[in-house]
Amino acid sequence: MDMEQVLHMNHGMGDNSYANNSIIQKKVMAEAKPILEENIMRLYSIIQPQCLKVADLGCSSGPNALQMISNVIDIVDSTSRNMNLKPPVFQFFLNDLFRNDFNTIFKLLPQFLETLEKKKGHKSGSCFINATPGTFYKRLFPDDSLHLVHSSFSLHWLSQAPKKLDNKENVHLTSTSPAAMQRAYVEQFQKDFKLFLKLRSQELVSKGGMVLTLIGSDKTQKFRTAWSLVGITLNDMVLENLIEELKLESFNLPLYDPTIEEAKEVIEEEGSFTIQKLESVILDWGAPNINDKGVDNNNNEFDINLKAEFATKFVRAALEPLLKAQFGEELMDELFLRYKNKIVQLIMEVEILEFPAHVISLIKKV
Ligand SMILES: C[S@@+](CC[C@H](N)C(=O)[O-])C[C@H]1O[C@@H](n2cnc3c(N)ncnc32)[C@H](O)[C@@H]1O
Question: 136: CA distance to ligand 1 center in Å?
Fold first, then answer.
């Protein structure tokens, strides 16, 4: 499967859309905001461009893409005020793959720009928003043209899945995956992340900043991940002849959740960036926004059902287009109903569904 042509999150603003099921990603951005602030303040103390050029790589569709813009403008505005400087003109480049639903972002823009003008005093002509379709595993911008690169919750997507190696009945790594499979995933991540860093170092100005967040793992992780649960569900469906065995045997998810040490090793080996911050935050993919969802967190049956539903929609919004392309649209409702039941079971066994997200702040070396 050619990821550049196929991969995207669920389009639109419907019940299963990415736009309506990305609260966890919004939470990660909020967690990373102080680190973004630190990086921008550092940048601004060295370079005060008339036009600040910022790229968001893997922006997807929906409100989170605009939240990133709003966060950067807030930080730069208050930094400029503190330094008695006039705020710069902003140019944002929203990047994602070719099949991304950019239109959903565009439709939110008139309201967003109006709010920017009314609440933050940024008149028309002070903030330009462009779309830049393409893979971030290739060059996207001219040499030395960006001041800041932001990428949230996207770099765990590999450029391609490793080939199947004796993990026929699964679609991702599990605790019982053969060592060769583990190696194949790590090596693909190392190759992709290294290339990403090299390309961005060409596009950023000297001392430019980069803030990245991605799903990670840690050595003590006891829980089955969202990804391996997809494989278990698909395998059940093969056993019941709902899915052809061959289709499962030829499919792996192009995702890798590195440990913080693995990410650090690649950054150091690639060598273009100094690490300003590298830390992990722990997230709950079952109920990140308990109050909004009206969950009382007592783990009663009603609660568990809501958590499982929430977690399923989070995973469905991201994985459905890929799974649809491999297994067929008609199986999606059944697949995710079964997936939800697996999560209910999981919550009853382990109670919480936690995973780490790594937040990485980098500075391009001179
Ligand atoms: C989970 S979404 C995160 C979106 C957004 N940054 C947020 O925080 O809500 C990951 C996005 O990365 C995009 N993506 C994955 N691989 C990519 C690549 N090689 N180049 C550009 N975008 C990519 C996906 O299409 C998807 O929209």
Answer: 9
